[in-house]
């Protein structure tokens, strides 16, 4: 029996003033249900939702579960502010999505059955994301961008959680390098405290210059 995979792709960090746009791509066997994902956990998991509807602690619980789950493979890509400034946030997010997709499929490259996997693969992207031309060819009919996909599909919800956790952790590390801006609190978003810090201290190397023109 041929094993069919579904890949879900979602991004986090489209709107912040600082930090990368981060995309996660998650591969899930089509036979794996949400019920099985929950029941296979060592922890009591919160309901599976889009990352925006979970608390930080809830996302971390899901991330710990997914990180070592035998049925799940994933890859994460960050596209940094300098690249966002050079192109634009939409193109940068699509670049991150494409790189995460390619990185994920490279994990399958050692499988003798890669050709069969590609034939039975479908890709779901959350609304607004598209894949650029890639070294891994997949039929357009099996790649779909879904509006509010993070509310509808389990595999996109998983991608949203992984992307959010990984980006938040990166922003906390940036706080240690640039403690004046409070990245550990707002994760680079344009809060009043963040904008006040920018006006007082200027910008850091991880700020998006193109987002700060009117501040």
Structure, described:
- The protein is α/β, with parallel strands linked by helices and 215 residues long.
- The chain has a single domain (5-170), classed as Nucleotidyltransferase, domain 5, CATH 3.30.420.
- The protein contains nine helices and five strands.
- It has helices spanning 34-39, 56-67, 81-86, 89-108, 114-119, 149-152, 154-177, 183-186, 192-201; strands at residues 5-12, 21-29, 73-79, 121-126, 143-146.
- A hairpin with an 8-residue loop joins strand 1 (5-12) and strand 2 (21-29).
- Helix 2 (56-67) crosses helix 7 (154-177).
- The N and C termini lie far apart (58 Å).
- The model has no long low-confidence stretch (mean pLDDT 90).
What are the main properties of this structure?
5 strands; single chain; alpha/beta; Nucleotidyltransferase, domain 5; five-stranded mixed β-sheet; 215 residues; globular
> Looking at the structure, what is the overall shape?
globular
- Using DSSP, what is the number of strands? 5
Mean pLDDT over all positions: 90
Number of domains: 1
**With helices defined by DSSP (H or I, 4 residues minimum), what is the helix count?**
9
Radius of gyration: 18 Å
Spell out the CATH superfamily.
Answer: Ribonuclease H-like superfamily/Ribonuclease H
What sequence of helices (H) and strands (E) makes up the elements? EEHHEHHHEEHHHH
Percent helix range: 40-55%
- Unreliable stretches (pLDDT < 50, length at least 5) are none
| Spatial sequence of strands, sheet with the most strands | 3-2-1-4-5
Write the SSE topology.
Blueprint: E1 5-12, E2 21-29, H1 34-39, H2 56-67, E3 73-79, H3 81-86, H4 89-108, H5 114-119, E4 121-126, E5 143-146, H6 149-152, H7 154-177, H8 183-186, H9 192-201
Parallel strand pairs: 1-4, 4-5
Antiparallel strand pairs: 1-2, 2-3
Helix pairs in contact: 2-7
């Amino acid at each position: 029996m041929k094993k069919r995979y579904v890949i879900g792709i979602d991004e986090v960090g489209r709107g912040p003033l600082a930090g990368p746009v981060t995309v996660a791509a998650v591969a899930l066997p089509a036979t794996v249900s949400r019920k099985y994902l929950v029941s296979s956990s060592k922890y009591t998991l919160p309901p599976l939702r889009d990352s925006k509807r979970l608390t930080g602690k809830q996302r971390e619980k899901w991330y710990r579960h997914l990180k070592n789950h035998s049925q799940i493979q994933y890859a994460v890509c960050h596209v940094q502010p300098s690249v966002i400034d050079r192109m634009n946030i939409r193109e940068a997010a699509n670049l991150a999505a494409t790189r995460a997709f390619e990185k994920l499929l490279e994990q399958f490259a050692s499988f003798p059955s890669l050709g069969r996997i590609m034939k039975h693969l479908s890709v779901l992207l959350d609304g607004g994301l598209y894949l650029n031309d890639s070294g891994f060819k997949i039929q357009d009919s099996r790649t779909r961008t879904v509006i509010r996909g993070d509310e509808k599909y389990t595999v996109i919800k998983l991608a949203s959680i992984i992307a959010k956790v990984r980006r938040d952790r990166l922003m906390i590390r940036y706080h240690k390098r640039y403690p004046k801006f409070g990245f550990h609190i707002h994760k680079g978003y344009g809060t009043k405290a963040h904008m006040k810090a920018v006006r007082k201290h200027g910008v850091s190397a991880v700020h998006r210059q193109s987002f700060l023109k009117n501040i």
